[in-house]
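Homework help board

Subject: predicted structure for assignment chain

Our instructor gave us this sequence and asked us to write out the predicted structure in token form, then describe one feature. I got the tokens but I'm not sure how to describe them. Can anyone check?
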Amino acid sequence: MLLIHGEKAHSRYFSEYAFEKMTGKKAFASSVAECATANAIPTGKYAGSYKEGNKELLIIAGASHVDLYDDVAGVIPYDQLERFFKDNLK
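My token output:
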């Protein structure tokens, strides 16, 4: 399960809640930097990635909900989609 949400999306808590229900782990750190460091995610493009087995929540830095629709803002994480599917669809 891969959940992708914009950092600034009003509905972000839906994905954080779903991730917590699936894994039993809270999907937010005290800061974006703490999350990025703990998960070896570069700050900038990705605000954070939370992983537990084959379940992952990816938060896109600075993105709103609409930014992830048609990629006009250039923030859809195609590289992370490819990595996730290669890792989990064997």
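Reply (TA_rk): Your tokens look well-formed. For the description, you could write something like this. Residues 12-23 form the longest helix (12 residues). That's the kind of observation they're looking for.
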